[in-house]
Amino acid sequence: MVRGQFDRLEVHAAMGPFAGPCVHLWPVAGLNRGRLCQLKFQFILKYMASNVITEVSICEPSDGGGPSHESLLEWVERVAMFLANDGVPPIAGRVLGWLMVCEPAEQSAGQISEAIGASRASLTTNIRVLMTIGFVERRTRPGQRTGYYRLKDGAWEAVVRRQIASLVSFREVATDGLALLGTERARADRVREARDVFDWMAEVFEQAPPPERKRGRP
Description:
Elements: H1 2-12, H2 33-49, H3 51-54, H4 69-84, H5 90-101, E1 107-108, H6 109-116, H7 120-133, E2 136-140, E3 147-151, H8 155-168, H9 170-181, H10 185-207
Antiparallel strand pairs: 1-3, 2-3
Helix pairs in contact: 2-8, 4-5, 5-7, 8-10, 9-10
């Protein structure tokens, strides 16, 4: 039942943040540019502020010395559901979620496939998506042909900063629009509003300090 809900989310998602190396959102028919910009900004805020990714209670050690596999998979599904709302394929979301909590941190395709219950064929495609985005990297070990995948250090900050840069670059488009409209005040005001929002975004994120990495602490 859960997987069916995810599949529908994937098919009907209007926006997908992970369309390529530069994160994009895909507009649907009838969606005006102003609404698209608003949705992209909402996505970034949700991506950075949501407690879905940062919640750690389910991964706290149990009486047996660590979380059960079932509990880990429940949390992985939450990660996948959160990302599916923004158009990320469910399997890619599960792979990312699993690599965030698995032990050891480096996993072969076979280990990931068995852990999340995905076929090797679909897994290969979705791992490639995550590698293209910059979330996952592949490593090999001396004397082995098997590749091992792990969450890339600093991946979240890099992906979010890239998305922010993509959003802020709309300032140039808005500025050109103002030059095009000239003294036509009514239309120019609508464009100016967009330009002002992206100016504000640029100022906020340029002044924001980098995230503090708290190793070994909740």
